[in-house]
Amino acid sequence: MNALVDVKPGLGATLVEVLAVTGRRLRHLRRAPGRFIGVTLNPLVSMLVLGYLFQQSISIPGGGSYQEYLFAGAAIQVGLAGVGPTAIAVATDLKGGLIDRFRSLPISRSSVLIGHTIADLVVAVLGLAVVTGVGLVLGWRPHTDLLSTLAAFGVLVVFCYVVTWVGVLLGMSSKSLETIDSIAPLVVVVFPFLSNAFLSEQNLPAWLAPVAAWNPISAVATACRQLWGNPVTTGGGFPTDHPEVVVVVTLGLLFLLTSVVSLRRYASTAN
User: Fewer CB atoms inside 10 A, N or C side of the chain?
Assistant: First the structure.
């Protein structure tokens, strides 16, 4: 039996296995749509409360529409809101015996976790579509060409995928679902407020401004705003002037760290 587990399938076989796990997760979503609602609810609330009700009370240094400034932050929340569901799904599989069933099958050990992340990426993309539609209704507009607009959404998709691996690692590391339920809301709410997702660094306390400037969320938001031609803040130093560099470096390191550690933990669990 152990010999079967150690089989190294080819690329085609691994792809089939990944798609099978992905399909399983998506079928669960169809039976439990509340997960999709949870991914889109926080960004929608942010746009409605901050961007619609309080937009006259919040100003952007340099001027411009706050609704357009806010949209990048709300879109980023879609990815952050997926951390909790991903972690819970992985932790449930670990504690529910699914790993034991996979252990008896000649499948690639990485296909299970990769399938989880791809399924959750699909959910995030659907969530981005909903948030974008609501953003257009509330007044958000891109002011650049189609290629630049799509490139910004590409940055968001990459961010969402990297963040799913954060959820995987959280699920592999957590000892209980209650721990995940406590941590996940903090990720969605606290991290954006420690960045320029909702407020410019210039509007934050002096001690917090450098933290917000170097927060990867700030780099993603700034890069998207530049690509869309939306209002951006200036004067934040290197991360503000070169957000694309910060995006590549920070997301690349985060992806390597979370994916490698998660796959190693999964391999040790499956032994």
Answer: N
